[in-house]
Amino acid sequence: MNNDVLRRLRFILDFGDDQMIDTFLLGGTEVSRKQVSSWLKKDDAPDFLKLEDRELAAFLNGLIIKKRGAKDGITPRPESRLNNNIVLRKLMIAFSLRSDDVVTVLALADFNMSKSEVGAFFRKPEHRNFRKCMDQVLRNFLHGLQVKLK
């Protein structure tokens, strides 16, 4: 799934290899052009390389810094474990979206959710109204983002 997210974001943002490498670097991770190329390959390609959670987190942190600027000049440490809730939250921050905007972006992908359903993704896991963000929600969010930005 991490490789899919990276592929989709590259397409949505129309990033070249240099911009991808720079974004990883902003997130505190130095990567090579070969690594980026291998992460972007299809899963059945012989030189496909699985993108680990820490690497995707570094890219998303770099994207936040690229889009919104560094917070007090500090580069946040990438998480070692990611889930869809964290990925969705980081994308919201990077693109300066609020819950209503996420509802609108999902609607662009013909996927309807209420503001309260979306808000449940951003609660603490121990909260009684917390809801796990499923793959189809993240996939539709990325598709809606593509529609919105392209």
Descriptive notes:
By secondary structure, the protein is an all-alpha fold. The protein folds into two domains: 2-68; 84-149. Helix content is 58%, strand content 0%. The chain has eight helices and no strands. The protein has helices at 2-13, 17-26, 33-40, 53-68, 84-94, 99-108, 115-119, 135-149. The radius of gyration is 15 Å and the shape is globular. The relative contact order is 0.14. The model has no long low-confidence stretch (mean pLDDT 95).
Low-pLDDT parts are none
Total number of beta strands? 0
Shape: globular
Radius of gyration: 15 Å
Q: Give me the oligomer status.
A: single chain
Helix/strand class: mainly alpha
The fraction of residues assigned to DSSP E strands is: under 5%
Following the backbone from N to C, one meets helices and strands in this order, namely: HHHHHHHH
Mean pLDDT rating: 95
The helix tally amounts to 8
Quickly count the domains: 2
What are the main properties of this structure?
58% helix; single chain; 150 residues
